[in-house]
Fold each of these.
Amino acid sequence: MKTTLIALLLSAATTFAGTNPFFVFDNGLRGENLTTIDAQLDLVKEVGFDGLSWRTDEPARVKQVLDGAKQRGLKLFVIYANLELRDGKLVYKPELKEIIALCKGTDTMIWPNMTSKQFKNSDPAGDDIAVAGLRELADLCDANGLRIAIYPHVNMWVHRVEDAVRVAKKVNRKNVGVTFNLCHALLDKAEDRIPKLIEEAAPHMFCATINGADTGGGNAIQPLDKGSYDVGIVLKKLKAVGFKGPVGLQCYKIPGDPKTLLTGSMAAWRKLSQ
């Protein structure tokens, strides 16, 4: 009886900690022992993530990730892509359409940054081009049961989460939303406004990303168990606005052994979630 009670309590704790699915960016799956997709997926499973992100890649490799994730009880949550405003159109790699078809029925999201050499960062003059292109892409995604979560990235046309929200509102499609991206908010010197930004993005938010960081915008991408910034501020606000979507761990250019870094970040996630 005592053993059963302990098991139930542990199960309840796990369920609470896992309210939001937690995935790792594929940029955290690099190293001499991680040269194959199978090895990367095995590490994702071993550390305890719910899945991972990927990128616009050869369709055969994307299929390998999809199949390998499913075999391990994991999910491919998002596929990173670049959309560029160029010559009056929204352009992207032709492989993206094939990738969208491959992801049919998986609820994988397309995760685009948006760039432009024609328009300055955050310039709404590019909105009409972006909206027309995103509506076309949204139709293709909708036919395959997918969503688009615009990814704000400093020094790109969609520079801030505010830009992503503005564009998503104008697109006005149920399968087009936004990502709240902690490291890019910090790089944009928006630390004091983060709770407000999450609140404004909440009605359109499909995805969020976190990582360890320092206050003041310095060293903005660290393992989740490092840095002076209190990531709990983000998670508490996500909970307060009722966000139930996936949360990704940003790992861009973090030095060190991936298994050690990801294990420490997972321990921090479990502690923060509780």
Amino acid sequence: MASTYHELYMKVRGALRRVGVESAALEGREIVCCAADKSKEEFYRDRQLYASDGIEQAVEALLQRRLRGEPVAYLVGQWEFFGLPLYITPNVLIPRSDTEVLAEQAITYLKGIDGSQRVLDLCTGSGCIGIALASEVEDCRVVLADSDEKALEVARQNVRLHRLGQRTAVLRLDALSPPLPSLGLGTFHCLVSNPPYIPTGDIPELDGSVRDYEPHLALDGGEDGLRFYRTILRDWKAVLQPMGAVLLEVGIGQSDAVLRLMQREGFGDLEWFEDTQGITRVVMGRLYTEI
């Protein structure tokens, strides 16, 4: 029997709810929109129309993949971050609302600076943070940097999607290696990063949708999860302007350790910010000591 788009959506939403997917409503809509090649607006406009057999089959195929654990963002090839649609592939982490805290605080900081601002987004992945900054702060110039060329290709796609090519650059840089003068990076008002921070030994215990599908290169923070924080704060402060700021996303229970590292490396005016669950998710400091 033929089904309307709304009926297909209700079927998918119900199946996802039965297996405990918290965002079943959102994911159900995304799956139907992807199968039907419709925008969200077109889905709501056409929800009482009947879908073709081919679309019903495509919806069912996507649903079965999701029920096996594959994240919906990888199924549909895009996700939203800070109100911006982004291309997403299994080569990058899926942007999460927790990371919007980092973008929000960086935007607030940058808007308090007179004139143009330069930002370095290390471990950029999809480019979600840097693209949000460039989109929200008119005078902002952003370098999106990552060590993985496959991730950088996704970032380039997102730069093109939002027509930010004149105010962003995409570079292959390794956060675990000191910046070389020959790179000619110049200095930055702000460094932002959501680095890998999962302790290596904890990765096998992650939820299957993360452990089995998201790139371990973007998850593994070394034995204690702090490997990237140590190198970024020690080596990459060299590209910050005097009183420049560093803003870092941190994992649950890591904020105190990262704040101590910041203090040891000469950062002051230390602040921390919570996500919507009351978990400290972002730490911030300004560079006081001379390099």
Amino acid sequence: MSGRYDEITIFSGNSNPHLAGQICDYVGLPQGRADVFKFSNDNTFVRIGESVRQHDVYVVQSFSNPVNDSIMEMLIMIDTLKRASAGRITAVIPYYGYGRTDKKDQPRVPITARLVAKLIVQAGADRVLTVDLHAGQIQGFFDIPVDELSAMFLGAQYFVEKRLEKPVVVSPDLGNTKRSRNFAEILDAPLAIIEKRRLGNQDKSEVLNLIGSVEGCHVVIVDDEIDTAGSITQAAEVCLKQGAIEVYATCIHPVFSEPAVARLQASEIREVVVTNTVPLPVEKQFDRLTVISVGSILGEAIQRIHAGASVSTAYRSIGPYQSRMSLDTQLGVANGK
């Protein structure tokens, strides 16, 4: 590989070290040495254990629980690397926390997704690499280049290989319709939509209607994120009441806040397919859960960014589930095109 900068160095915060390790394995490099910890006074401290002068540096950190600590670690690591004369710093954010606070949907509320973007830029990041933002407009909150990959094709390819009989893709809400439509196109399946209403700022919603038919079908409910699993389990109940044979669920970001795992285990969902953009501790894993790694797609993107090659024209033949989709198509899926 050749590029503007001397060499690639990949560092990881504490939020998702296993994924960072998979990325390093794909790229074929050891992980950069760094100490990231808290003092007794709860202050975060970072010490880089090797020279990064003029290196092309990538910092891998999911903004997952504890979200604020994860963000602060990323900011301090970027600042540390900037002061150590890194040539270019890319913030690799597999899961962008606060992404759901992307607009003012009621009076006197923040747009925290933009605030976090400004903090990352101000800390010294030169570009961002992320996976399936909650809303495409978040890219515009950054004043630096943003490469948004979509891991949705990994889940779609998984279900293609399952060869479900008479599949139907269901979007659990109107806002996720474009993403679900693209998923349905890969499966060559029809699309149905759950119409629901969110109740205030609470993590609760009310299902109003099912648009489309699922009778006698194998349903795949598609979402970008599962938080408390209320929407997914409600959607599954509606589909089964409307005559679906069995229901599967898939998402990119398995946040699994309480009481998500209990709800999923108690539901009649046959299988839940997710990626590892958010780390899942043992207590959040269960027998009907399948996890697909995004390490290969992030590793491939890092190699191409470093080499100055086009990310959007790279074709996929990587990971456990091969895809015929190009990154250009994936970027379109991520942006709802």
Amino acid sequence: MVNHVLSLKVKHPVAVGSIRFDQEHFPLIVGPCSLESNKQVDHILATLNDLNIHLMRGGIWKLRTNPSSFQGLGTDALPLIESIKRAGLFLVSEVTDPRHIEFLLPHVSVFQVGARNMYNYYLLKELAQTGKPVLLKRSFAATVDEWLKAANYLLNGPCNHVILCERGIRTFEHGTRFTLDLNGALLAKAQSGLPVIVDPSHAIGLREFVPNLALAVAASGLDGLIMEVHPEPDQALSDGRQSMTLQQLQELVPQLDMVLNISGRKRC
């Protein structure tokens, strides 16, 4: 039996600059788990520009399960952020603490709320006051109802551009990092009226399978993808195993275009 979920039924379009999340367009958000170096960012920027991808993801502060793991460059990432802006790309970056909002506000085009912070309602309330678009990831143990209620915290302020992101949920399966829940993603889209994108990188955690999941998402009627890439994934400071190589991305994008063309949609 399907549980009743909260209905938001948002009617306004969601846009990041000229990039629109709607039934005609299918944005790609692509980049590394964490911004690491000039060399890393320059390689990725060159590839994204060649592929006509305008939204770049990149972590500045990272929440890590292991406290000894790389936690991000923090404010030292500012030169890398500036190079992304000079290249004309929109930066999507995770905010993990309300105290970071002031620093990020002039530099980030979309605030990302990670799975661990979906239940951080104080953070959501603060982000709602910025008026900037927010990408809200589903927590790995959240129901669709809880996910949509978290979105309501964001919609209760000047923020009216909210993008939902399915990134896999925790199940009994340990062969993959998480289990991609396209059921929940489609239900959230139908119930809320908000765009729902998918993060196949976190869902499966294995880079060789990310392209196939991405193609499935493009065929599903959902609204976009956020994916991790790295010039040298095996040397990445975080999430290297799930990060595609730049060559994999270059091979995937034409395939995505073919799938989207069948349904009358286009990348943006």
